[in-house]
Amino acid sequence: MSTCYSRSVASKPFDPVIPQRLLNLRPSFSFHLSDLHSHRISLPLVCSPLSWLNCSEKKGILNPWSTCRFTNGRFDRVLGFSALEGRIGDLQRERSRKLEVVIGACVTMMFGVANRVLYKMALIPLKQYPFFLAQIATFGYVAIYFTILHFRYHAGIVTDEMLALPKSRLFAVGFLEALAAASGMAAGAMLPGASIPIISQTFLVWQLILSTIFLRRRYKVNQLLGCILVIVGVITTVASGSSAGQSIKETGIFWTLLMVASYLFQAADTVLKEIIFLDSVHQLKGRSIDLFVVNSYGSAFQALFLCLSFPFLSNLWGVPFHQLMSYLRDGAACFINIGSSATGCEGAPLLPVLFVITNMGFNISMLHLLKLSSAVVSCLAATFAVPLSIYAFTLPLPYIGAPSTLPPGFILGATVLVAGLLVYCLPPSLGATSKQS
């Protein structure tokens, strides 16, 4: 194993000017290169191999703050105080990055809780018009995403090659997003508010199944165990009753299954987007398609599909096709909260608009946190928003009515579900370190 020792080797006198705070750090130590590769070195002095050159004629050109030690005809060099200064800057930037990650995670959890609560509250004034609310949200996403895409294109982040890629898969993305939005809005209007954060976690189960089938992905034991715990938690929650009136069982199994199906559509949408990203690397010669290209065109096709699907999906809410125009007119009046047909629409348009804005903020914060850290950190942030949102529904929130006390079975199911998510998000074991030098 190669070893580096710090010592002075000079071919001519050298009188460096060294900051006083660095003189207190004695570079008189030794360590193995394997320690550096395994990140066990805590001191900011860096030992780096220099191309494994033969060192027999190279000593004279090394500066006095470097060292050279023969090991099987090879040499290593210890970089001096300039590297130490750089390492100090790296440590400061690392601390700043960690602080930014913590702040980003807190913001994501805050948006996650607000998004779940406002999702239920927005459906209170528009309970009879969930399909109309889906349209409002969809067209809002289209406007925002294409605005961001416009600025990213002029900034050079989005290229003409990205925009020229085939749009057939993006059309499928819009189709799945429309199904997820319509079914989720319909079921969310009928289900108890505290059940929505629980049932929504079936998204993890669907994602595991679909990615295994279509992406040929293999998951670790902790991820599969977490998936099983999520299933147990959902079943426990659905099987529990509510002592405060409406429960999941009393609402009906149809609306529960419809909400579960909406997350199946979302999982399929996510897997399809991942396939698009993977294939774009080959199509764009090593560069992946920009996220906002997928979101912008996917949202546009989603809006188009929702418009075209009115005749086919309106019966889901008991609206005959010949009454569709009056349904949209009444939905708009309820959203604006004016006119004689706007009875029972208290809270509009404030609550629906707040939901759309909060949902966009949640999606953007999740994307920002993912870029700052990793998918594990963003998953944990979204996970901890689940119990917080469940607790939020037990508070005296406006428009929802008197808060209900959650039964023990409901709390048990939520606990098992969150435990499953935590197990799923555990980082893989580091395992044994490599024995190669």
UniProtKB/TrEMBL annotation:
It is a multi-pass membrane protein. GO terms for biological process: glutathione transport. It is found in: Membrane. Pfam families: CRT-like. InterPro entries: CRT-like, EmrE-like. Keywords: Membrane, Transmembrane, Transmembrane helix, Transport. The chain crosses the membrane at residues 101-119, 131-149, 170-190, 196-215, 222-241, 253-272, 292-313, 369-393, 405-426. The keyword Transferase does not apply. Belongs to the CRT-like transporter family. One of its GO terms (cellular component) is membrane. This is Uncharacterized protein. SUPFAM superfamilies: Multidrug resistance efflux transporter EmrE (SSF103481). It comes from Amborella trichopoda. One of its GO terms (molecular function) is transmembrane transporter activity.
